[in-house]
Write a structure and sequence with these properties.
The complex is a heterodimer of chains A (about 375) and B (about 325). Chain A is of the alpha/beta class. Chain A has 14 helices and 7 strands. In chain A, the strands form 2 sheets. In chain A, strands 1-2-3-7-6 form a 5-stranded parallel sheet, with helices on both faces. Chain A has a two-stranded antiparallel ribbon with strand order 4-5. In chain B, β2, α2 and β3 form a beta-alpha-beta unit. The chains are: A alpha/beta (about 375), B alpha/beta (about 325). The structure holds thiamine diphosphate.
Chain lengths: ~375, ~325
């Protein structure tokens, strides 16, 4: 490699949202991309319809989550509307035995990995930190500490290397997380050890109220090559491009070529969480501009143009979405809270005298509230 | 029985643990060819190869976070933090991830990670190389925290820590690395006392002196000196500071009625505060005097030339013994 002593980033600014690889225009027209095309050569109407269905179902989970929070059934909800293509496109490219490390907003990743209706809501209701067993769906508990999971994904990939399999692990994180030490350390470790890990940075333009320009001047995907990691900046509202980019990255990792980095340029249409007020920091025009790039209508346009979008199809998708939403609602409404004493469970794998004593004390204390035995 | 330094005992402990279980791997800065800055991992690279003796990039959060991922995948990482004062960049991964993952996943994900930390002062080291951060970890549920005081314990407890399905913060007093002692290398782990048990290092009847790790030797010296003064001190080496073996502690306090705690770490909200609160709750009616603490000052660790004024020594311990014995002492008449 030749290297000049003065390196100046020459690409456009991090805020340029159109400097991306894409396969579908915002109007849903299929266009060619020399790098991505070969990764979707086999994608047929069934696959496209499947991706469409997934995105619609994900949006319905999200809408239901917001509604449940507004109705007081959930403590909080982190909406992902607008990010369906990034989450579904990348997660659907994974194999079942790959392992994903998502953040709190990656509802679609948990969905694509096989999460049950209760898995989307019970944590936000405050019943559990994690409803699913990570090993059942090869997906880690959703992470709230920004960026921490990037290192876990790399460590997991280092384990894969030692086991000699061709599995891949995936770290999902946001544009804000790209500023964290953990994410940068993760890239150092991944590159140094050639770990089979894919970094998926969802650049949804905002980290709560901080625009991406506070995290980065140069496009975030441009950082990875500096760590020795090939990267791609794709249109995160183009499900086909996300699917293709992920296949590109996975293929490299599976073949032992080491890590890859994808920056998916997208937009969070809703608030950061249901506690947030985005009108304080971003204007309507920006939101409206992104509404015209909606990932679901974009794929719908392609399907329509190809005559693959008929009443029967949309009918079954809507029915499935209704059923899933009803399942999510039911899971929230019928949730039962664990018994008080279980609050002390699973702190340690092995007996721990401190916890054992507290359990004994708390158990006796709780017993004090038990109704007195009836006199006979 | 072999006469080994603590450094060599730990090295042997690592070697046996790695030989016994192919899922055990060690990782850290400079631990490969160099064998670690204290040579604790000496020879392991040659024996087990680079896949199991991992020289990492210089990034503590990175080391700890990738260890979490390896544990997710079924490995048992033994992480070396180069010096006590360098564990702080890894603190978030330790307290938010390592300690909590089991709880967060309702027991589905275990974190059998051992975090070895060359620890505490008394060796004339540079800034950030002599710290006693144990209270931060003791305060964090989900971690076990142990401190060793002799080569035999170092060898056995390290292997127990690695075999444990819980994360263990393992403190190695660097001032004892070169002290020698008898080590039974063939001891069966099942027959050895569990690492959670305290050890009565010296029996006595007047005062219970609670300590751990680097201070055990000083405490024993103090007990010997006190004997000349007619005071009988029982020294308890806690070995585990989370959880504490209160059965052993309270049995001793009920016998002596007097408690002194000593550790190198600063006093404020330290392990000594917790020990005294817990002992008072359990043994209030047995106490003949207010329990006393002998600790480092509440200051950043001082420059090497001054550390002797910071570290509790034999005389400071004896002064506290005088306080619990109600004999003339440095605080006579000066406290409200
Ligand atoms: C270490 C840490 N610092 C701060 C927070 C509070 N916080 C939660 S989400 C968030 C913004 C994250 O932005 P980004 O990484 O872009 O992800 P996004 O929410 O946009 O999906 C912040 C600051 C946190 N959860 N963890």
């Amino acid at each position: 490699m030749t290297m000049t002593h003065t390196l100046t980033p020459t690409a456009d600014l991090a805020t340029d949202i159109d400097d991306v690889a894409r396969l579908l225009t915002p109007d849903g027209e299929r266009i060619a991309d020399p790098e991505l095309d070969r990764w979707v050569a086999d994608v047929d109407a069934i696959t496209l319809r499947g991706l469409y269905r997934d995105m619609v179902l994900l949006r319905r989970i999200d809408t239901e989550g917001v509604a449940l929070q507004r109705q007081g059934q959930l403590g909080l909800w982190p909406p992902c509307q607008g990010q369906e293509a990034t989450q579904i496109g990348t997660a659907r490219a994974l194999r079942a035995d790959d392992f994903a490390f998502p953040s709190y907003r990656e509802t679609g990743v948990v969905y694509a990995r096989g999460g049950k209706p209760s898995d989307f809501v019970l944590a936000w209701r405050g019943e559990e930190h994690s409803t699913y067993n990570p090993y059942d769906i090869n997906t880690a508990t959703q992470q709230i500490i920004i960026g921490a999971q990037a290192l876990h994904a790399v460590g997991y990939a280092m384990g894969v290397q030692r086991d000699g399999t061709d599995q891949v692990s995936v770290a999902y994180f946001g544009d804000g997380a790209s500023s964290q030490g953990d994410v940068n350390e993760a890239m150092v470790f991944a590159a140094s050890f050639g770990a089979p890990v894919v970094f998926v940075c969802t650049n949804n333009q905002w980290a709560i109220s901080e625009p991406v320009s506070v995290q980065a001047k140069f496009p975030i995907a441009g950082r990875a090559p500096g760590f020795g990691i090939p990267s791609m900046r794709v249109d995160g509202n183009d499900v086909l491009a996300c699917f293709a980019a992920m296949r590109w990255a996975l293929d490299m990792a599976r073949r032992g070529e080491g890590p890859a980095f994808i920056e998916a340029v997208t937009y969070r249409m809703g608030p950061h969480t249901t506690s947030d007020d985005p009108t304080r920091y971003r204007d309507k025009e920006e939101v409206e501009k992104w509404r015209r790039r909606d990932p679901i209508t974009r794929l719908e346009a392609l399907l329509r143009a190809r005559g693959e979008f008929d009443e029967a199809f949309i009918g079954t998708v809507e029915d499935d979405a209704d059923a899933l939403a009803a399942g999510v609602r039911e899971a929230a409404m019928t949730a039962t809270t664990r018994a008080p004493l279980t609050v002390l469970d699973n702190v340690y794998a092995e007996p721990h005298s401190g916890i054992d004593e507290q359990r004994e004390w708390f158990g006796a204390y709780l017993d004090g509230f038990a109704p007195a035995p009836e006199e006979v | 029985m072999a006469q080994l330094t603590m450094a060599k005992a730990i090295n042997e402990g690592l070697r046996r643990a790695m030989a016994d279980d192919p899922k055990v791997l060690v990782m850290g800065e400079d631990i490969g060819k160099l064998g670690g800055v204290f040579r604790i991992t000496d020879g392991l690279l040659g024996e087990f190869g680079a896949q199991r003796v991992v020289d990492t990039p210089l990034a503590e959060a990175g080391i700890m976070g990738t260890a979490v991922g390896l544990a997710f995948r079924g490995y048992r990482p033994v992480v070396e933090i180069q010096f006590d004062g360098f564990v702080y960049p890894a603190f978030d991964q330790i307290v938010c991830q390592v300690a909590k993952l089991r709880y967060r996943t309702r027991g589905n994900v275990t974190m059998p990670i051992t975090i070895r930390i060359p620890w505490a002062g008394g060796v004339g080291a540079a800034e950030h190389h002599s710290e006693s951060p144990e209270a931060y970890f003791v305060h964090t549920s989900g971690l076990r925290v142990v401190a060793v005081s002799n080569p035999q314990d170092a060898y056995v407890m390290l292997r127990q820590a690695i075999a444990s399905n819980d994360p263990v913060v393992f403190f190695e007093p660097k001032r004892l690395y070169h002290s020698k002692g008898e080590v039974d290398l063939d001891v069966q782990l099942a027959d050895a006392p569990p690492m959670g048990l305290a050890r009565v290092a010296r029996e006595g009847s007047d005062v219970t002196l609670l300590t751990y790790g680097s201070q055990v030797g000083t405490a024993l010296d103090a007990a010997t000196a006190a004997e000349d003064d007619g005071v009988s001190i029982e020294v308890i080496d806690l070995r585990s500071i989370s959880p504490v073996d209160y059965r052993t502690v309270t049995a001793s306090v009920r016998k002596t009625g007097r408690v002194v705690v000593t550790h190198e770490a600063a006093r404020e909200a330290g392990v000594g505060a917790e020990l005294i609160a817990s002992v008072t709750e359990r043994c209030f009616n047995y106490l003949e005097a207010a329990p006393q603490r002998v600790t480092g000052h509440d200051i950043p660790y001082p420059p090497a030339k001054l550390e002797k004024h910071h570290l509790p020594d034999l005389d400071r311990i004896l002064d506290a013994v005088d306080r619990v014995m109600d004999r003339p002492n440095s605080l006579s008449g000066v406290r409200d």
